[in-house]
Amino acid sequence: MKTFFLAACLTGLLCQPVQASFDGDGCDFWLAPCTLPLGSYPFLWIDNDTRANLLLLESDKHQFASVYAPLAAEPGRSRELPFSIPRIAPLSGTNEYGFVITEVDIPAIKKLADQLGVDISALDLSDKMLLGGRGRMVSNTPAALAQFFQLLIDDKALTPEQRKDLAHQRVNLLVNPELADVSTAVFPEKSHAADLHNYLLSAAYFYNGNFSEATTGFQNLLKANQPWVAETATYMLFRVALNQSIEHALDEYEMFDVTKSDKNLTSLAAQKAKEYLAAYPTGRYAASTQDLYRRIHWFASDWNELAKSSEQALGRAANLEMLQTLINEVDTKLLSSDAWQSSENQFVSAPDTPMLTLTQTLRRLREGYQSRPNAILVTEAEINGYKPMFEKAGMASAWNYLHSVWLFYLPKDYAKVESSIPAATTQALTDTVDFSLQVLLGQALQAEKKWPQAEAHWRHLLTLKTTAIQQQFLQLMLTNSLAYQGKPELVFAANSPVTSLRFRSLVLKDVADASLLRQQVTSGVNNEERVIALHTLLTRDLITGNYSDYLKDRALGKDSVSLKFDKSTLGDVNITVFDWDGSNTEKGYHCASLDKTAEILAQQPKDGHALNCMGEFFRLTETRVNTEREYGLQWQLNDAPAMFKGKEQSRLTHYQQVIANANAEPEDKSYALYRAIMCYSPSGYNRCDGQEIDNSVRKSWFQQLKRDYKGSVWAEKLRYYW
Fold first, then answer.
1. Quick one: which of 13, 1, 23 has its CA closest to 100?
2. SS3 of residue 175 by DSSP
C-alpha cells in the first residue's frame, strides 16, 4: 500500500529545498485547477494579470515552452478563448499548493520499524498527513518518521536498545506532538543517542511553540558528536527564529498580517541563516536556507531585498512548473501584497530587478491603480531613472517599451509613441518584448484613428513568424480594425487571414448587416459559421420587425445550413429554436407556430394576437443575439458601427403596441396588459427590455386590466403589480 504525504523542512527532520518558501502561513497561491483571469494576452499589457506579464518575460528568458493552453485542434471551428494560461501540473513531488508530497510506502515504513523492534501496526499512518501542510507542523509526517528510522539504522554508534527507544520517541512525536513525552530516557552523556534524544526533545518544544526552550536545546547541540544533529540544530536555530518572528503576527480577525511580524526576530533569523551557511556552505539545508531568505525579507517588509532575491530565484527556475510556483510567491508576497495599503510601504522598484520593475510599473499604469488615494504615480523621470538598470541587464528594448507604454497611457501622446517605435523589419517576431512593441505601435495608430495604417500594420505582422497565440491575437486586432472602419466584410474575404471562428462569430453577431449575414449563411467556410450567421440573421430579422425578410431567410437557411451541429458548443445559436410550434404558451392563450405568426405580421404588422405570440416566442425560448460565448475579449466590437438596419423591438414593445391599439381584441389586450405587468415581476425591475417605465404607468395597466377586463382569466390571475 502506498500513500502520499505532505512534507517540508521545518523541523529539520526532513528537508526538501523546494518547499523552503512555503511554510508559515499556509497556502495562498495559484492552485493547479485554476487558470489566470480570462484574456491574458500575449503581450505586456497593463491590464494583464501581473503574473501573466512576469510569466511571459521569464519564460522568454528561459526559452521555455509556451505558457498558454494549446489551441483548439481546429480554431476555424471553435470559439474557445485562445488566451488562456493554465496552471501547469504541480512539480513532481509537490501538490497544487506547492507543498512537497513524498510518496510513502507504508509497508516499507513498517519494515524499518520491524528492524528497530518497534511495533507500529496499530498506528494509522494514512491519518497522519493531516498534521502536515502548514506552519511548523509541516514536516511531522510518516515520511519524516521513515527518514528518522533510516538514520537510526545507519548510525553504527547506537545500540539496538537505543535505536528502539529513540524510534519510540519519534513515533510519540508523530502521534501527538503536544503530548509526546520524549524526556524520560537517559543516555550516556555526549553519545550519539543522547544527541538524538536531545534533538527530539528540542523538536518537541519547537512543534509545541515553546520557542525559548527549543532555542536553548538546539543551541546546546551545535557541537554535538552526532553529525546530522550538529548540522540540523544549526539550521533549526534559524527556523526557530523565523517562526518565532510571526508568532503574534495576527490581525483583529486572527488572520496573518506580515506587518505585525517581529522585526528584531527576523533580523535574528537572517543572522542564524548566515551562520548556518558559513558553517555548512554545501550542507543538506543550504539550498533551502538560500531560498528562505525571501521569507526573511518578506517578514521584515524589506521589499528591496525581497525583490532582489526573488529576481535571482526567478532566474534560476529550472522549468516552467517551478517558474509558475515562484511567480505565484512573488506576486502574493511582493507585487500584489497587502503592503499596498499604505503609500509608504509599496514596492515600486529595487536595484538590479528589471523584470520585477517592468512588471510592477505596468501594473501602476492601470487606471484603477492611478485612481487610488495612495497611488504612487509613474513619472517620466522615474522611467528615465530605470534606463541604466535595463541597459546593464541587456534589456534596452524592454526599457523602450516601458517608456512607450507610459507615453501611451499617461500623457496619451500617441504620435510620440508612433515615432518612438520603428516598424518591424525582421521576419521573426516571437520575442515577447519585440511583439509588445509592435502591438503598442498598432494601438497607437488606432488611437489616432489612422485606421488604414493600422490595418496595414496588422496585416504585415500576420505575415511574420509568430507563435500560434500571437497569431490569434493579431487576428483579433485586424478584426477590430476592420470592424471600426466599417469594413467587416473583409474579415470574410477569400484571402482573409482572420480564420478563428471566435473572432468571425463576434463580427457576425455584433456588426454584420443583413447582406453579409446572408452571404455567410450560404458561403460560410464551415457549417459552424453558417449556423452562427443564420441564427443571428433570423433573430435580427425578428427583433427589427422584418418579418418578410425572416420568411425568405428561413427558406435560405433550410437550403444552406445543416441541422447536424454540436448543440453543446453551439447552444447559444441553436437554429432549431425557430421551429417553435406555439404549443407551450401559457394555458389559456393559444399561438400558431413562429413561421405562421411571422406570416401574419408580414401582412398585418399591428395584429394584436400575432404580436403577443411573437412576444411568447421570445419569452419562452429566450432567443437573442448572445455574445457570452465570445466573452473574455478586451477588444470587443461594442463600439464599432452596427450595420444591421432597423429599430430593435422587444416583447414589451409588442405588448405596448397591443395595449395602445384601440381595435385589439379583448383577449389580446388583456393578455398584453398581463404580460406587460409581469415584465416587472417579482423584483420590480424590467426583465423584458431596457425601458424605465414609471410605477404609475404600471399601476394604470393593472387598474385597466382589473376594470376593463374584469372576470378574464388574466385579470383573475394577476393579484399584484410591481
1. 23
2. helix
